[in-house]
Amino acid sequence: MNTFLSVFVTVISLGTIFGCLALLIWCSRDKMGMEDGAPTGHTYDGITELNNPLPKWWSYLFVFMVIFSLGYLALYPGLGNYKGLLGWTSSNQQVQSLAEYNEAAETARTDGLFVQYDREMIKADEVFGAKFRELTYEADGTTYLAIADIAQNENATKVGQRLFLQNCAQCHGSDARGARGFPNLTDGDWLHGGEPAQIKKTIMDGRQGVMAPWGAMLGDDGVREVASYVLSLSGRKVDAVEAQKGEARFAICAACHGADAKGQTIMGAPNLTDNIWLYGGSRAAVEDTIRHGRHGVMPAWKDILGEDKIQLLSAYVYSLSNVK
C-alpha cells in the first residue's frame, strides 16, 4: 500500500488501542469522592445509582487484551507496511509463475522468513508424502507399481479422486465428463491415447492441441463441403453431393486425421467417425472449427504435483473408463 494509506492504518489502529486504554483508566478513577457502594444521589424510577468501581476481572482482562494487541502488532504485519519482527506473511503474494514461487520460497527459507503457505506445504509433504509413496511404490520402495494395478486399489483411487477434484475438476468437471473444449475422461475416447503411460505423460508434460484454420484456403463453399463429409462419417444425414466434394477436399485433413479419418493419437488428432465432438458436433460448430481452427492447452503438472501424486492421479483417470 502507498505511504499515506500505511500511515492512516497505523494511526487508526494504534489510536483505537490507546484510546480504549485511556478510557479504561479514566473510568477506573473515583471522581465522586465517595466510598465504594455509597449512593451517588442519582435515582430514576425507584433505582438508585451506587458508586461501584469497574469489576477487577474485567479491567485486568481489558489491560491484557491491550498488551496482547500491541504484542501481536509488533510481531506480525498489521500496521500499514510494517512487516513485523517475525517476518511472517501468509504467502508469496507477488509471484506470477511457478518459477517465481520456487525462487521466493527458497529465498524465504534462506532468510529465515516465516511464510505460512510454504510451512504448511512442507508439513503436508512430511505428513502425507509417506502415504503417497506407500500407495504408489512396490515393497522395495524404489519401483513404481503399474498404474493399472494402482487403479484396482480402492484406497489409491480415492486419493487420486481427491487430487483430481483439487486440480483437474475446474476444466474436466467434478464427474470428469468434461465440457465444451475440455475432454470427457470417462468415455474411452482419447486424443493422445488412453494407455496408462500415455495418460501419465499427458498429465506430467501437458499437451497442446492445434487445429489449423482452413477457411482462407477452402473458402465458404469448401468449408461447407468438408463439414458435410465429416458429418457423414459418423452417420449424419447430409447433402450427398456436398459430401462427395468434401471427400475430395479432405486430403488436406488426412495428414493429421488419417485417410480413414479415425485420427492419430501421436498427433492428438481426434477420430472424426465416432460422433464424439470436443467443440460441439452441430454443423455450425464443425464449420467453425474448420474455418477458424482450434488451439487447446493442457498444462503440465509435474512441477506442481510431483510424480508420486501424478501416479495416483493417472491411476484414477485410467480407472474411469477401464475399471468397473
UniProtKB/TrEMBL annotation:
Keyword Chloroplast set for record: no
Biological or metabolic pathway of the protein: Energy metabolism; oxidative phosphorylation
Location of this chain's protein in the cell: Cell inner membrane
Chain ranges of the Cytochrome c domain: 155-234, 241-321
Free-text cofactor note: Binds 2 heme C groups per subunit.
Pfam family, one: FixP_N
Transmembrane segments: 7-26, 57-76
UniProt cofactor(s): heme c
UniProt main location, coarse: membrane
Keywords: Cell inner membrane, Cell membrane, Electron transport, Heme, Hydrogen ion transport, Ion transport, Iron, Membrane, Metal-binding, Oxidoreductase, Repeat, Respiratory chain, Transmembrane, Transmembrane helix, Transport
Listed InterPro entries: CcoP_N, CcoP_N_sf, Cyt_c-like_dom, Cyt_c-like_dom_sf, Cyt_C_IC, Cyt_c_oxidase_cbb3_su3, Cytochrome_c_Oxidase_Subunit
Assembly and interaction partners: Component of the cbb3-type cytochrome c oxidase.
Described function: C-type cytochrome. Part of the cbb3-type cytochrome c oxidase complex.
Family: Belongs to the CcoP / FixP family.
Name listed for the protein in its UniProt record: Cbb3-type cytochrome c oxidase subunit
Provenance organism: Oceanisphaera ostreae
Lineage: Bacteria, Pseudomonadati, Pseudomonadota, Gammaproteobacteria, Aeromonadales
